[in-house]
Model the fold of this input.
Amino acid sequence: MKKRYLLAPGPTPVPEAALLAMAQPIIHHRTPQFSEIFKETAELLKYVFQTGEDVLILAASGTGAMEGSIVNLYSPGDEVIVINGGKFGERWVKISEAYGLKVHWLKVEWGKAVNPADVKKLLDENPKVRGVLVQASETSTTAAHPIKELAAITKDRDCLLIVDGITAVGVFDVPMDAWGVDVLVSGSQKAFMLPPGLAFAALSQKAWKFQETAKCPKFYFDFKKERKNLKDNTTAYTPAVSLIIGLNTALKMIKEDGLENTFKRHDRLARATRAAGAALGLKPLAPEAPSNAATGVFVPEGVDGGKLVKYLRDEMGVTMAGGQDHLKGKILRIAHLGYVDTFDIITSIAAIEMALVKFGHKVELGKAVGAAQQVLLEGYK
Amino acid sequence: MKKRYLLAPGPTPVPEAALLAMAQPIIHHRTPQFSEIFKETAELLKYVFQTGEDVLILAASGTGAMEGSIVNLYSPGDEVIVINGGKFGERWVKISEAYGLKVHWLKVEWGKAVNPADVKKLLDENPKVRGVLVQASETSTTAAHPIKELAAITKDRDCLLIVDGITAVGVFDVPMDAWGVDVLVSGSQKAFMLPPGLAFAALSQKAWKFQETAKCPKFYFDFKKERKNLKDNTTAYTPAVSLIIGLNTALKMIKEDGLENTFKRHDRLARATRAAGAALGLKPLAPEAPSNAATGVFVPEGVDGGKLVKYLRDEMGVTMAGGQDHLKGKILRIAHLGYVDTFDIITSIAAIEMALVKFGHKVELGKAVGAAQQVLLEGYK
Done:
């Protein structure tokens, strides 16, 4: 009889309307019926990506769109800078190296945001660099990198800014066209409020120019072919039909609320969570540049973070994320992106308070919930 | 993007497993396939009703089973005592009078439980009385009547104890056979965790004797006919097929948890809610004999309870119940029956705290949540 609450930074909860849309009998993808839904969905994606460019829809996890961003824009031996401040920064390194790119690492302490001046300096020192790869929101550390400032640096160079917006698009403002982001990728199971299975990628005109000369081998993630098919309201290979139908519903929900309100909601939920963390005396993982997607906090001294996450999930039914690599067992990541509202945050915080009591930590029950409530009240008239 | 939380004393939330079971393609009711499910369901119902007798399954709301309990057991002119301490006590009066029974009112102040001595006295004074009609849990006042004590009084008389257990069966202990309850009725949308649409009625051997001579007119609610059909694993009229399939799933969930654990869970949730009400300084509606199905509290002086319920529902997405008749606008009823757990209670209490702030009431945010958490912690190892 235990209820389950999904409060991890992806997959995120799926709204009932999207679940019901996906539960409809499957339709064939080479039909006018599907093409119409696909066309409308592709248009709605542009709204959320804040771009006039095509947003490619791939049957893949977000990593597929990351890989596509490398293989479609570069050739073996090309040089790129990777801003590596967490697990997903590392992923840019691994993909680039798998295809023979030369990677300049820009290591950033986990939980910190990159200093744009460091990127500028590295670019100045390495004029052959043709790409800067970064996360808008580094999910593993809950820190946000300064995309606007980075775009200002790459804009007038023969160099692309490639942004993993997997836990950023639809969470906070990353206006691709306005800022001059060259590639923006995301995935369905985050702010798009869907199950995993779809990846998205949008390319600037400058990026499409890079595409023309890129020689990395590719077949499934062939962006040129996908763009051609997108113009015909279809995909190169079999699309994940039900997920796209769910996406259509979810995007309409986002559009109806409006992007601005969506960003405000995420900001409010994030600030409420941070206030609760502070009330609990838990040290934040990314105090200077926190992402609005998730809040990382260090677990108290003497508490095993791994056991805490397991207790929350298995005993209390509340799934959150712990830490990875050197943060394993040391942190708790409380997600607040996607189909999440006031009472999800309250559930998270109340569960953490109660679990900490069970772990022998001194907690004044309700205090952190109260700190969150104070912020969450802003959401009501 | 507003999420909705159903925390009224019925309908109550439906578990995902039951929703999925009911979403299956409909099957025909005159088939071995359905009969098998029906048979198993009827057996499981006996477990929850704590009886060896048949539990009739009707396509009706709970009121249908209440009406059936009158028309199948009495004749016009028969005398009954109605313990009338709320809206549902009144319903017993109205049904009895609609069929020409002579009703002895035993008025109980709303929020109070009946004093068994008063029932005994009224029975002694009116030896022709052949039935005592009562609610185990009076949903409108959140008070529980002392069924065990009443059964001890009616047991050795030519008089039935007819109990509306609509918000009691599966919530707290009403062991029908052990206590000597003669009729116990309930409905699907309460502790049975289903949508509305099914009513249940179980009759003691003594009650079935009454049935033999009862002359009230009836057709749809003909219990004798239903019992005959039940023995053949079917119903007299078309059963609500999908609800019965959902019931099968829900009853298995209850059985798996065990009745004792189910009662314990409801008791813990109820105590947590009462503790939160006390922490908020809200006067309880039924302090002496509170039901574990829902907790009624008076809203603070100067707060319009009707507007508060509307605000909670329309602005915060949290549906609770207000008061009826002379309690209209004065109380709030927080439900905690059925598919409800720790975080539903926390959601309720946090929402009330926040709404009261919006209504200008002085509230220390998180304090009542903390009081609830303290009790709810008992549920975890």
